[in-house]
Amino acid sequence: MRIALIGQAPFGAAVFERLVDDGHEIVGVFTPPEREGGRPDPLAQAARDASITLVQPRRWQRRGVVDEDVVAQYEATNPELNVMAFVTQIIPSRVLDFPPLKTIQYHPSMLPKHRGRSAINHSILQGDTMTGVTIFWVDEGIDTGPILLQRACPIGPDTTLNDVYREYLFPLGVETMSEAVSLVEAGQAPRHVQNEADMTYEGPWEGDIARIDWSQDAQTVHNFIRGSDRAPGAWSEIGGQRVTLLGSTRSDHSGGAAGEVAAIDGSGMTIVCGDGESVRVSTLAVGRDRQPAQEWTSSNGVEIGAVFEPAPAD
């Protein structure tokens, strides 16, 4: 089957490789532009290596007006199906509807729950014990189209964003997309309308949003840290420094003030939360420099009894 692949990053490249292995013809690859002097995008590089048409538009449309040159390059590939794998750009409906078999997309949650681009973060932030992947037919809404295929996976009590993506949602997404494309090719792909009563939409979880509120209970703080690990990174301030906290587990220590450092040892730093219960973090980071918590506290003069700054009131 002739497929236009729209996406980016290692996930997009893995989908590319799998579809080629499945015997499909990738007729065009469409990624955002790469940063000048930066690392090549893995999907873009896969297209170059295979001498496949590569188009890297800054945008497909602006204020509702499509870029005719970009769309013409897309239409020239004449795909039977669009596959969207990690798409962050707005794709015009004219492109979505162009192939005879239309467009399918990967989403890292069990739709209709956790629509939006930060779905994985919110699954953990909200304490979910299960998540999964959805392949759906794209319409003009945000993650609203009919469901083609879903596969579930667990979220463990200490699972981080990084863990669940690398161990489950990435490989499961590639496998499920392969299966979905096969169903489309065979004319057996279902279209299950999403139940709007079960819908949740999650806003972006990025930038400085992930400041820890130590007045929250320990389970909420634990979910907050692991749901932000490693991006965008849950952070707080201590000793005049902004520090990112990684590798959270629950601790059996109880008692103390919210934000107080209750213990420092080889397993990490234990911090008291608003309910008097505690979390333990194994790693601290300033910028991109990550260190074991015990090592960081020693080199920065942070001792037991020190207190993280409270989050400012809204």
Descriptive notes:
The structure is a single chain. The chain is of the alpha/beta class and 314 residues long. It folds into 2 domains: 2-198, Formyl transferase, N-terminal domain (Rossmann fold); 218-300, Methionyl-tRNA Fmet Formyltransferase, Chain A, domain 2. 26% of the residues lie in helices and 27% in strands. The chain contains 8 helices and 15 strands. The strands form 3 sheets. It has a 7-stranded mixed β-sheet. Strands 10, 11, 12, 13, 14 and 15 form a 6-stranded antiparallel β-sheet that branches. It has a two-stranded antiparallel ribbon with strand order 4-5. Strand 10 and strand 11 form a beta hairpin. Helix 1 runs parallel beside helix 2 and helix 1 runs parallel beside helix 6. The mean pLDDT is 98.
Keywords for this structure?
Rossmann fold; 8 helices; 314 residues; elongated; 6-stranded antiparallel sheet; 15 strands; single chain; 2 domains; 7-stranded mixed sheet; Methionyl-tRNA Fmet Formyltransferase, Chain A, domain 2; alpha/beta
Map the helices and strands.
Layout: E1 2-7, H1 9-21, E2 25-30, H2 42-49, E3 54-55, E4 61-62, E5 65-66, H3 68-75, E6 81-85, H4 93-96, E7 103-107, H5 119-125, E8 130-137, E9 147-154, H6 161-185, H7 218-226, E10 235-238, E11 241-254, E12 261-265, E13 268-272, E14 277-286, E15 289-292, H8 293-300
Parallel strand pairs: 1-2, 1-6, 2-3, 6-7
Antiparallel strand pairs: 4-5, 7-8, 8-9, 10-11, 11-14, 12-13, 13-14, 14-15
Helix pairs in contact: 1-2, 1-6
